[in-house]
From TrEMBL:
This is Aminotransferase. NCBIfam families: PRK07483.1 (NF005685). Its cofactor is pyridoxal 5'-phosphate. GO terms for molecular function: pyridoxal phosphate binding; transaminase activity. CDD domains: OAT_like (cd00610). Belongs to the class-III pyridoxal-phosphate-dependent aminotransferase family. Keywords: Aminotransferase, Pyridoxal phosphate, Transferase.
Length: 434
């Protein structure tokens, strides 16, 4: 295959290698070069690229029936996957709405949240509050709640009005000498201030990534932050939406990242690791009270994508989740995550351009800075993150870097989200190639 393409790739000026095969955590291109996938692509391929049990389940479903439209039929894998997810989810997230990816999952969550209040007659509620340094997807609504300046720029005039508060990002926003707990409370209290400013009766909900992913790199919240957020949402009767598209489905060492925060949201979106890249699938989990408000109210959610509950996608995702559970991969993620953290600190802990090493489970990031003491980001024009991605790829390593400043408070970072199946030799190789 030559380099001519009819596809509008992300960077059309830049020819891409052609992926032709997968072997565990490796992607193999058409020249035979092997790339160690230390980022699961974009935190997707959590079982690597050749899990036979998942492939067999997908083939078996294709042999039965690939797909039947959800306005006519449900399917066995869709029902079984919903039971699997809801019996393991925290709180009363007892129902599922299937979609094909993360943006659709969040779009669904935003619309379910609005409809919940509409069913209750609270139609004045129209505001969402979200955070800077966040990414929730590419549709107009999800781009509006997210805060990726590069992706928003062209569309700014047509985005929905959304309030953005600061994220809980201790490395960048905690005051010198402030304890993590005190910082967590201070960061969460920004939500209350914004609710009061808007008028509580006009607010629908607050959306946040449980662990921040693509926009600033594996940002875990300060202890107590999300518990305080939950209290504030409850105090004003607003919904908490947790976006676990990137950090969920085992990435942090728990099936749902919010388990480590001791909170359950009203709506939770997941995708990426749900189908692990074997099938495109996402889901929005909703609490029983949201489900009941709609089913006992107007009776219908006026939404729906053509591929809702796609049988083959659900069969693939169900097989992925069973492999994670049956192989004890959540504990393995925690162990390998600790090993990766230790190895990164040993190799880069004193590096003059490494400002922070952070994350949880197999969701890790390094923040790169011009000057370590002052935490000064590199000039965005230098595109450090893009050059790093290219150099890593040349060295046979896939990492997921990002960059560009927000409030002057973000530098370049390298995100790592390797498959859950890696062992110590892969950990060593990731650090060596990095
Ligand atoms: N939410 C988060 C936290 C994400 O990281 C992403 C994608 O990176 C999305 C939503 C959007 O998901 P998708 O690209 O599958 O639409």
């Amino acid at each position: 295959m030559d380099n001519r393409t009819h596809i509008l790739h992300r960077d059309p000026s830049h020819p891409l290698p052609v992926a032709v095969a997968g072997d565990g955590p490796y992607v193999i291109d058409s020249t035979g070069k092997r790339y160690l996938d230390a980022s699961g692509g974009a935190a997707v391929s959590c079982l690597g690229h050749s899990e036979r049990r998942v492939i067999a389940a997908i083939k078996a479903q294709l042999d039965r029936i690939p797909y039947a439209h959800s306005s006519f039929f449900t399917s066995e894998p869709a029902e079984e996957l919903a039971e699997f997810l809801t019996t393991r989810a925290p709180g009363d997230l007892g129902h599922v709405y299937y979609v094909s990816g993360g943006s659709e999952a969040n779009e669904t969550a935003l619309k379910l949240a609005r409809q919940y209040f509409w069913e209750k007659g609270e139609t004045a509620r129209r505001h969402f509050i979200a955070r800077r340094q966040s990414y929730h997807g590419n549709t107009i609504a999800t781009l509006s709640v997210g805060f990726n300046p590069g992706r928003r720029a062209v569309y700014e005039p047509i985005l929905l009005p959304v309030s953005h508060i600061a994220p809980c990002f201790a490395y960048r926003y905690a005051e010198p000498g402030e304890t993590p707990e005190a910082y967590g409370i201070r960061a969460a209290d920004e939500l209350e201030a914004e609710i009061l400013r808007l008028g509580p009766e006009t607010v629908i909900g607050f959306i946040a990534e449980t662990v921040g992913g693509a926009t600033a790199g594996a940002i875990t919240a300060a202890p107590g932050y999300f518990r305080r957020i939950r209290e504030i949402c409850d105090r004003y009767g607003i919904l908490l939406i947790l976006d676990e598209v990137m950090c969920g489905m085992g990435r942090t060492g728990r099936l749902f990242a919010c388990e480590d925060e001791g909170v359950a949201p009203d709506l939770l979106s997941c995708a990426k690791g749900l189908g692990a890249g074997y099938q495109p699938i996402g889901a929005c989990l909703m609490s029983d009270r949201i489900f009941e408000a709609i089913t006992t109210g107007s009776g219908t959610f006026q939404h729906g994508f053509t591929y809702v509950g796609h049988a083959t996608a659900c069969a693939g995702a169900l097989a992925v989740q069973k492999v994670i559970e049956e192989d004890g991969l959540l504990a393995h993620v925690r162990a390998m995550g600790a090993a990766l953290d230790t190895a990164l600190r040993a190799r880069f802990g004193d590096h003059p351009h490494v400002g922070d090493i952070r994350g949880r489970g197999l969701f890790r990031a390094i923040e790169l800075v011009e000057d370590r003491a002052g935490k000064t980001p590199f000039d965005p024009a230098r595109k450090v993150y893009a050059r790093l991605k290219e150099a890593a790829l040349a060295a046979g390593l896939m990492v997921y870097p990002g960059g560009g400043t927000i409030d002057g408070k973000r530098g370049d970072h390298v995100l790592m989200a390797p498959p859950y199946i890696i062992d110590e030799t892969h950990v060593a190789l990731i650090v060596e190639r990095l």
